[in-house]
Amino acid sequence: xxxxxxxxxxxxxxxxxxxxxxxxxxxxxxxxxxxxxxxxxxxxxxxxxxxxxxxxxxxxxxxxxxxxxxxxxxxxxxxxxxxxxxxxxxxxxxxxxxxxxxxxxxxxxxxxxx
Length: 114
What we know:
Layout: H1 2-13, H2 18-27, E1 32-36, E2 41-44, E3 46-48, E4 54-56, H3 62-66, E5 102-103, E6 109-110
Antiparallel strand pairs: 1-2, 3-4, 5-6
Helix pairs in contact: 1-2
């Protein structure tokens, strides 16, 4: 949850309201499932993998990201110093990967913060 919280904090620091935070999260690759204006909350879509690990993912991708019939061990994906992590297209792809902090320009998750 660190990466989406950082996106929301940056939006808030720039004077953004709840709507601006939602827009910033969407631009960063996160799906905002619901906006609760009464309680000033944004709900991101998440699913649990077969190993019980929660992953932020668009609802449309739940089957491929968290499908229960997949026997692949998702716990092997991680970021290790001086080694490419899993392939990615946005920071959102890396938030659920162990020890990864962002998607690098190389198109792979990395443990190196900006």
